[in-house]
Amino acid sequence: MPLLEIKNLGVFFDGQEILREVNLQVMPQELLAILGSSGAGKSTLLRLIAGFEKPNSGEILLSGNVISSPRDLLNPEKRGIGIVPQEAALFPHLTVSENIAFGLGKQDKSAREARVKELLELTRLTPFADRKPDQLSGGQSQRVALARALAPKPAVVLLDEPFSALDAELREQLRSEVRQMLRTEGATAILVTHDQEEALSLADRVAVMRDGQIIQVGTPAEIYNAPVDLGIATFLGDSVLVEGWVENGKLQTALGKLTPITHVTEGDKGVVAIRSENFYLQPNPAGDSEVVGREFFGHDAVVEVQTPKLKIKARANGPFAPEVGMRVTVWVRGSVNFYPNAEGN
Amino acid sequence: MQKPPVALIAMGVFAALASLVPLGYLLIRLGSGFDKALAELSRPRTFELLGNTLLLTVSVTITAIVIGLFQAWLVTRSNLPFAGFFAVLGTLPLAIPSYVLALSYTSMFSWFSGFFASWITLSLATAPYVFLGVSAALVRVDTSQEEVARSLGLSRFRVFTKVTWPQIKTAATASGLLVALYTLSEFGAVSILRYDTFTRAIYNAYRGSFDRTAAASLAVVLVLLTLIALYFERRVRNRYLSVEASGRRNLVELGNWKVLAMTMFGVLGLFGAGFPIAALTGWAFVGSSRSTWGELLSALGSSLSLALLAGVVIGIFATAVALWNVRYGSRFSSLIETTVWSSHALPAIVVGLALVFVGANLTPWIYQTVWLLVFAYLILFLPNALSVIATPMGQVSRGQEQVARSLGLSQVGAIFKLVIPVATPGILAGMALASLTVLKELPATLLLRPNEVDTLATKLWSATETLSYAQAAPYALALIIIAGVPALALNAQARKLASEVR
Q: Using CB atoms and an 8 Å cut-off, which of residues 234-253 of chain A contact chain B?
């Protein structure tokens, strides 16, 4: 049974539709990522779950009880849903320990102290227990914010782009730490992000949002390998789009005959999306294609290749990537996604 | 570190010594006639004054904090309709000098006097200080902190007491102490409303006898009270929490309370600005036949020229002190700056009294001239100008100054060709602020003005002494128009609030 259930949720602000027919289920102890570009309605959805906004239609259930509906709104403080805002929003007048203990009001003193100690250790903040928030780094602040949210053992923790204010290196490190902390606590969490890498690497399941709607829900592999439409396919990573049609169960394209992942109907026309890492560039002096550009990243490289009919971008193993000016033959490895009736670029 | 030009040091030292004159005078008086002063102070009358002053200060402070807090919360945190309009309405009493407010009410109701009247008048006049101070702090509290607190199980009220209040407490206390200082130094309003506090008693003691011991001993007690309030104000002010203004604000739905909230703002606006201006306008029409235009114009002329002169002098000294301290900062320069600041809470009546003594006994050549009056204004309002002028003085970076020097400018050349031109808008704003404050000044002007000089404020004062309100009204209106309204328009905090509340 799902812990949190969102049914047909819809919201209007000032006559503008922000969320439409949102349906989503969150399982106990799961980490669900809501992925979408800015303005997709992710943060609004989070605020609805937390109880800071009222829906215009639909409802939200926690453990089978309605907590939000157009008629009734359970107050945020009665929900047992923790939040970790983007900028940490630590209470500036309290120390790290006091921040973490903030939601433990009803417990007796020794239980409170034990819980704070436990969380300080979990988040490796013990040496900073008596510091004020303005003496912490960005990563430390986010860990305190998470510890503070986890302290009262909430049913669900909501994380609103918690890593976006940090620099790249710190972000990666903190991501795996946060995942570990959530695991250790056995917490159920919803993470909102616009960073596809973050969503795919961190979450058990990913819900992709666009224009106030949930477009696709699935495991990271499902989402990455089989995006339901072209928009998601291009959003999730570099893809080369070519026009093609179905003939004898294969996809006929300017890059040759390709194998579809999903079931296709004979005679359909549409667009084929090929991930840049699916290309294999075989050095061949007699090849019909030529390398015209190369961006080197160390572990891999993005190589621009002019084929007889179009220009593609392929991801190649860094040290072995072909040089500019080399002639190659382009192969497509594995299966590709086909979107019938879609318009190519 | 470069050495500052000698002229800056000379001007800074002069300004610092000037601000020490009033306290110095009081100490000398106390030293030479200690027993006499003690006898004077141990009279029951002193305790009565102490009780009156403290009662008024405490009640006005508490009332102003309550009103200001409510206004600030409504304007920044609730979905009050026309919040921008009400924000301006809430600051409007700042445009009316408190003695003008007092005058307008006694002119309407002859029974309006004593403690109750002073309490109401000063609360209306000072609530905007709390309103502005607390609003600025409230806007800075990140609402996502409040949301986190609610998600952790706190009710809306407890979120206010546990998360919001601790962060605005500093601003509320600081502005409350500012109100206390204001009330302690207030002279015009309590005198017009015939409520005996130290300031009024000092003036009457000075007027009543040639022996200045009584006035001086009372002044000592008043200065002590001010120093206590100032001490706390300083302590609180230095503990600001560094929080950036938060972007999104989550407004509390007022529902049916909306009407009550709007009524409260409306009533405060009416009593703090609307009725007084209407009453004064009415009296002005009655009085226009009696008070001649010529007299009004000549008072206006002398007020303006005096204010302009004082504004320029204060601006020049503020520029010198700020230049020295901001660009060539040393331990000595910051000592000078602190000394200059020390006089900002000194009651004007005390400064006036001290300079009467100094002028009559030590410097008879400037006594009863405009220059002694300007000297008093310099002591009183240099801190105001300094607070505006200090920041722009730092605008030109050390690197830019070094480039200018490498291009052939001397140290003084760099100051006049680079630092001051860049800071000019700030310097002019500081001068304007000082001039506007001088226009409204009453007690020191009353004690120190040359006999032939009549300003708007002193004309108003002599008219109220004979209870001729119709005669006083045109001067009161002129003060509101040429001093009060521009000062409010220049008020940086009020402008910031107006831009932040939509």
A: none
Rounded distance between C-alpha atoms, residue A202 and residue A159, angstroms: 12
Q: Is A91 in contact with B154 (Cβ distance < 8 A)?
A: no
Q: Return the DSSP state at B418.
A: I
Examine the pLDDT at B430 and tell me if it is beyond 50: yes
Q: What is the pTM of this model?
A: 0.78
Region B312-328 average pLDDT? 92
Q: Does A77 touch chain B (CB under 8 A)?
A: yes
Phi, psi dihedrals of residue A272, rounded to the nearest 5°: -105, 130
φ and ψ of A8, to 5 deg: 45, 40
Testing the interface with B: which of A46, A77, A99, A192 to mutate, by most B Cβ within 10 A? A77
Q: Is A152 on the interface with B (CB under 8 A)?
A: yes
Nearest 5°: the CA angle A124, A128, A131 is 150
ipTM score assigned to the predicted complex? 0.70
Q: How confident is the model at residue B232 (pLDDT cuts 50, 70, 90)?
A: confident
Residues of chain A with Cβ-Cβ distance to B167 below 8 Å are 92-93
Report pLDDT for A280: 87
Q: Do A81 and B152 touch (CB under 8 A)?
A: no
* Rounded average pLDDT over B277-285: 88
Q: How far is CA B112 from CA B120, B283, B469, in A?
A: 10, 17, 14
CA dist., res. A222 & res. B190, Å (int): 79
Would you call B152 and A152 a contact, using CB atoms and an 8 Å cutoff?
yes
Which of A87, A93, A136 is the best substitution to test chain B (most B C-beta atoms within 10 A)? A93
- Contact pairs from chain A to chain B, CB under 8 Å: 69
pLDDT mean values, one per 10 residues, chain A (345 residues): 92 87 94 90 90 91 93 87 87 89 84 92 92 89 92 92 82 87 92 90 93 92 86 81 86 85 83 87 87 84 87 81 87 85 61
Secondary structure of B235-287 in the HEC alphabet? HHHCCCCCCCCCCCCCCECCCCHHHHHHHHHHHHHHHHHHHHHHHHHHHHHHH
Going by C-alpha positions, the residue among B284, B282, B173 that lies closest to residue B237 is B173
**DSSP of B310-375:** HHHHHHHHHHHHHHHHHHS--HHHHHHHHHHHHGGGS-HHHHHHHHHHHHHHT-TTTTTSHHHHHH
- The CA distance from A198 to B197, in Å, is 68
